[in-house]
Amino acid sequence: MTQISKLLYLKTVISDELMTIGQYTTHQFNYPTSMMLTVHYLLDTYRLSLPHQIKEAKQILKIRKMVPIFINSHITLFPLKAKRAPLQYYINANAIVGIKSHNNKSIIYFENATFIIVDVPYTFVYKKWQESITLSHLMQ
After folding, report:
1. pLDDT digits (tens, 9 = 90+) for 10-31
2. What pairs with residue 115 in β-bridges?
3. Which GO terms describe its biological process (predicted)?
4. Rounded to the nearest 5°, which phi and psi values hold at 107?
């Protein structure tokens, strides 16, 4: 397994500079770019194209918005916020151990006792997680 296969999630940082945090099972990495450039970078490391991956996922899942991105058998990223939202999250569906609802937020648990609290309803997170796992199984 490579370092990238241990990716848990990506999230943007609200500050005066563009920055995306990549949380891995053992460490955190700060990418000095926007979320989409970081996703492009991850896909480029596997010689994949973002438009092609999104097109395939749309055809397989029959959805049009908030489309998961299949990278490899260990990484299937799904967005939790719109592309234009100031705070964006891309979660690796294959690394999720559990999801829990807390008020109007969701707590997503990963391997190695790592978790993230997102301001997104549980039902939406669960639906996107299931779509991503389905895509992962169908694309392998």
Report:
1. 999 988 888 999 999 988 999 9
2. 109
3. establishment of competence for transformation
4. -110, 120
Interval 60-85: pLDDT, tens? 999 999 999 999 999 999 999 998 89
d(CA 68, CA 9): 13
For the chain, which residues make up each domain, given as ranges?
4-94+121-139
Task: Name the pTM for this structure.
Answer: 0.91
Q: How far is CA 108 from the centre of its chain?
A: 12
In three-state form (DSSP H/G/I as H, E/B as E, the rest C), the secondary structure along the chain is CCCHHHEEEEEECCCCCCCEEEEECCCEEEECCCHHHHHHHHHHHCCCCHHHHHHHHHHHHCCCCCCCEEEECCEEEEECCCCCCCCCEEEEHHHEEEEEEECCEEEEEEHHHCEEEECCCHHHHHHHHHHHHHHHHHHC
In this predicted structure, what is the pLDDT of residue 2? 53
Give me the count of residues in the chain: 140
Paired tokens of 31: 């990418």
Instruction: Check pLDDT > 90 for residue 5.
Output: no
